[in-house]
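seq as requested:
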Amino acid sequence: MRLLEAWTIAGRTAPNRVMFGPHVTNLGQERTLSARHVAYYKRRAIGGCGVIVIEEASVDGSDWPYERAPLATDCRHGWEAVATAVHNEGALAVGAIGHSGGQGSSAFSQRELWAPSRVPEVASREVPKWMEPDDIAVVVEAFGRAARHATEAGLDGVEVNAGQHSLVRQFLSGLTNHRGDEWGTDRLRFARDVLSAVRSGLGGDRVLGLRLCCDELAPWAGITPEAAVPIAVELAPLVDYLVVTRGSIYTVEKYRPDYHEPQGFNIDVCRSVRGAVADAVPVVLQGSIVEWEQAEAAVRDGVCDAVEMTRAQVADPDLVGKVRANEGERVRPCIRCNQMCQVRDARNPIVACVGEPSSGHETDDPDWYAPATTPRDVLVVGGGVAGLECARVASHRGHRVRVVEREAAVGGVAARFGPGAPLVAWLEAECRREGVAIEPSGHASPAPSEVVVAATGSRPGTPTYSIAPEASVVDVVGPVAASGVVALWDPIGGPIAVALAESLGARAVLITPDQIAGNELSRTGDLAPANVRLQQKGVRVERRAILREARPGEVEIEDRFSGARRVIAVDQLVDCGFRLPDESVPTADIRIGDCVAPRTIHEAILEGRRAALAIDGVR
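struct tokens:
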């Protein structure tokens, strides 16, 4: 298999062609790398990853893009610890270095942003300072100094960011570089100077990588795939590998988008770039490559020399090891939901995964799979993600487990809405592999010896509006009318109502109390794209609206601000609001998931694991 072949870069050999790319983790302590970082990267190296690129460190104090963003001058000891841990497992360790420029934040530094030109940052609307020649010199020198620190720390090299959130990209692009001086007439000058300084700081025996945006998705002025080829050709001789990415100041969400974007979206542009620079430098494919089969095909077909599989290895740190052991079908799927691995936001969460909650928590999670002290007979009532995960882990620990699900299929809401179906399928397959007996369309009748875990999910919530006789109102789990206009009441602003509205298209009227549909999707980067999709599908969105009454053939809504009421003609109302716990197993020994409180997939999986450990203590 080509993907698992050794890969030599600048004289240093990685055990395979799989890369764990740089990404925000929020695992830092102040602006340094922490013990959590070390454990996080070591876990991927143990799992078999070939090249691990550490979270990007700002090269200069003028850049402080998020609260726990590493600073290169403070990373010496952290880089050294990561390098030692990763090298001990046979992988290469590369430090990402960069400067966010105008895409940074002044919230933490309390100073102006630096950028090539005065182009406002999209999210904050902050106008950066136009960098003067002295400022440019300071940053170029800082890149060289960061490279020197990386070398002294024992890293195999560094990767310079000219992709998303990057000052280097901002100098390369007509979107953000409006200068009339030598850095504007020659937009590649800054990149060349930076790479030259980094090479000097590294010395001759270290790896220098470049993460290069090859499509800003803004063809009126930005870098296009066609324009990227000559840029790559000019910069390739200065580096030892090149990662092809996309996204700009206006399309941040397109860098690592959620499941609405196709997997492998960068394949075509990567192929063209590699065709132009193949003799000069190896090329790495990036862009929602979460399935090892697609990664193998890309390397085998000459699209690239190696593949970045970052989210895939957040979801399953053992991805490479499983593939090497011919157990590729057991790789836990990345469902590209971005719910836990996208952490660059005001909440400051740490990186994790909905299907693998231990990601990011390597230093504080228990050993979920420790053998049970006394194997028990266990009945899990409910085959949603919480119940399946509890059954999977409990069986692995040695308990004798059966799952009873009242529906004909397992998975619950997670299997019906959004991207969760592949994770449900994986959980079911792993349960059966562990010997769990799954009884669909069953009725829970606990034996006296069984420990009972209630994972019964939720039931319809209490309506906050009145319902007239004969009105057609259903809960979010349906059934939805096959024809006619369907109103969707969405007081949550999450992905379920948006997904249902998209599936209904022009038949849907989405009613939200917020200023914008799917308000909570901002956390995953899908807010703007979701509203574009709704418009393209012809969905009617009623904003700032509170549902007051459902009547036969119509609903009445009230404007949140003015109090004005009006009537909308609909054939059915689907309540996508909050549900309540299903407490149908009051004598359960352990309760998990939605039958405790409304849970996300991540919370349900985590509670399932905790329950699998708690079985030992049930008397």
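The CA atoms of residues 379 and 446 lie 7 Å apart.
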